[in-house]
Structures
1.
Amino acid sequence: MPCDSALAGCDNEDRLKLDELMALCTTLQNRVLDLEKTKTTLHNEIASLKRRVKKLEKKDSRLQRASRRNERMDDVRRIEEEVDLDFLSDAHNRTGPVESGDSCEMKVKLERGAT
């Protein structure tokens, strides 16, 4: 078995230690490569998740704005109903039972003119 020029004077024990160290070095290099691949994969997954979170946050923001808009519209409708009910209640107190259409308005106008 030929001996490398750098290892010309080495005995078998030193040769075994060198072989073990070379195998260990190769194993460690492979582990480093695997860890770098894992790191790249995780980096890509994190970037993907960040994009997804940003997209969901935008969607949530739009939904919150729509919800607030709907709440405001509900408030407006509720106020309009209260105003309508107040008006109808006042009209009923002035003219008796409320009738539909122009005749109701006419009774209110006549009642106001009579007082």
Note: Residues 12-114 form one domain.
2.
Amino acid sequence: MTDVAETQTSLDRQIAKWQTFFDLLGEMDRGQLAKLRHSLSNRPAHFLTGTIYAAELEHSLKNDWQRAVLETVAGLFALIERPHDEQTEDEEVRREQRKRQPLGQLLGELHIAQNRKSGRKLDASSSIEKRFLALLDSDEYALPYQLRQAITLLDASEIKPDWSQLTNDLMFWQSRSGNRIRQDWSDAFYLVAEKEMRRIANLDSTNAQAPETPSEDTP
């Protein structure tokens, strides 16, 4: 097995563990989820220790920072997810499509949607972009607030992140890999508008080159 393949396999295993953790959160009763939501208000979710062990994550959390990140994302999960409500087929399809998508891409889609609705160029600055840049610039103290703002924006448009991918990315936020994660999110954010503008340009070019269909009244 090559180094790249081994790295991917290791990543897949870790993502699967995060997913197990969120699956277990989804099995919590409403009272437990309410307690988890309240943990976002400066009440550390230390009661998650049992769930962390059940998901075999005790060795994945290397320091207090990573534990705090997991507790924050778990609180956000409880804030916007409704695991006891039956999902529609469309919701399941959208959730499947979002797998492994970075948060930057989801916010990028929201960014161009806002610009399109406002009649601006797709790559024009927007309040979504400003919020995203504030998130990228967050240190360990500002991150919980900025992350909550970003997730709330997505939720308002019925967009939910891949919680496992988000958690895995955030684990590196304060490490040497943090700049790479920020760059990956940034690239994904701006690539959304770039791809859509390229698609529209190609469509316009195709339409311009298409021969006109003769009118029925043409002799």
Note: Residues 44 and 71 are 7 Å apart (CA to CA).
